[in-house]
Amino acid sequence: MRYMAANAWVGGGAPAFAQALAARRASLQLAFQSAAEQIARRIRQLGGQARVPTFSTSVSVAAAQPSSFSGMDVTAMGRLVADLQRAGQELPQAGQRLAAELSALCISSPSARQVGDAGVWAEEQVGDLRQRLAVIQQTHDIGTASQATAAFGLFGGHAPDANGVGKLTVAAAGGDVAALKALVDLQRTGRDTTLAGRLSVWWRQLGPLAQGQLMNASPSLVGSLNGLPAVDRDRANRAYLAAQKAAIPLEIQRLRASSVGLGAETKKLSDQMAGIRDPYQKYGLSQRLERLRESSARLEEAIKEQELKMRQLVAVEKGMARGGQNGRPSALLLQLELGGLGKTIVSFGNPDEADNVAVYVPGTGTNLEGFGGADSERAAVTWDQANRFALTKKVASIAWLGYEAPQWGEKLLVYDETPLLPFAAWKGGPLLAGFADGLHAAHRPTREARLTILGHSYGSTTVGDAAQLRPHSFADQLIFAGSPGGSARKAKELGVGSVWVGEAPNDLVGDVGTLVPFLGADPSEPRFGARQFYVPDTGDFAGNFKAHSSYWDDESDSLANIGYLIDGKYGDLVPFPEPPVSPSSSSHPAPSPHLPAAMSAGGPSPTPHPSPTPTGE
């Protein structure tokens, strides 16, 4: 029980095991207590005196404070199994001895059987736990296993499984692609908070041979699974990228050849119809001509879709090429979905081994075809800045385009796709929440990590929605930049202790939340309850929206503050400038035009003193 209490943070099957263990322990104590009381009563009946000792003890341990990324001491768990085995051997013997003692005193009591039953239960647990622990020790020779491994690898036999993940993983391990797809589909719903942890354990226990077979069979599906090691996801997605890069030009060539053939057939039929007078015959040919034209139109659409996919591949490769430059680590491709708006996740640095992990979520107008531009660049320079301020720590900076961001133009008036309403955030929130689950599950337990999720523009609305799906477990810190709304009325509703917001004074998008309440309250408003970091006025005309993209400008105070926040160096933040004091002003100077509107309306001090333990309240 002390081992379990010291690792009370472990989810999955551990709580059920701990509950069963506690019940057996209480039953064991009660059995001895009851037997002692009956023996004392018998002694008194025989004219003697007896004081009954207490057999109830508390479980007192010095447990480490849990953090977002936790681990299990494999050696300690080995001792737990060994102690259970000893209990399984000794308690039945103790039960037999107790039965003999009670019988000699002519006492009839169920206590002896209860003691023996506790030993039988302990012995029953040993076989399953020892087998699971052996697998864990093979894959975690460093002596520490992840929280997910403890929860589902060691205590998985006790874990509830309402969504049938166990059956799906068994089938997937056997090469069932439909089961693998079902796991990806379940992941997209964001309903199962344990899924990433289960997948992390399942994948590690498969072994290299089975892993390689699944990657070869379904690289895109394997590469999409949250909870798998980042290097394995990268390997699978790169294989998928290479396969698509080779297959798409051939498919375009085939489609164009078919289009040429259809075009020739259409022209021939059209020429044939020109010389026909019979209306019935002409009607039949016109119907056939219409079908040919429809087929030709579908072929043209298919060609355009394949050409789009090819451009998307080029954009991903361009974005990934930013890795390995300027001292950055090589990029890891954590997800790739081609077609339509497309999706991808690229990490500069391995998030499984990093001390500081930052996830950048872009907003309106972003899509896979444009990924090679600002979106990958922002994640790259975020790594530069965070690494510059924390040279002794490993940094991973992730560009998360894992949802379909709302688009401008004609989409502005489409009810469920407009950036003025939260539908895209509602769809993207579960995807981001599941990705964060995977970061926690896959992270190496030997390193403590700090997870910051940064939402820009509409991306902050998506971040806010995801945070509320995983209260108090989503991230260590949220940063909103140029946010039109944080998907909540108050920062404390997000369930993250540290919530920061930065807004350029001439960024019109940051004021949308004040005018359009559907995206949540404006995070830059004091009543929202977030802490503000300084972003300078760029001096641009607000109507050209340049300020909305200024948060990552080279050598800017805004970018520096983002780096400090990711590293937790709140005391080093570039402060807000003092407002200018006019000689003719009173003792209460007017607010500076360079300060955010929220601050001139009674918000935080223009020279705030950041706390090392900021709150979202």
Automatic annotation (TrEMBL):
Coiled-coil spans in chain: 289-316
Bias type Pro residues, positions: 605-617
Biased composition (Low complexity): 583-604
Top-rank lineage group of the source organism: Bacteria
Molecular-function GO terms, alphabetical: hydrolase activity
Region ranges (Disordered): 575-617
Alphabetic keyword roster: Coiled coil, Hydrolase
The DUF1023 domain, residue ranges: 343-515
InterPro entries, per the entry: AB_hydrolase_fold (IPR029058), DUF1023 (IPR010427)
Protein name listed in UniProt: Alpha/beta hydrolase
Species whose genome carries this gene: Streptosporangium canum
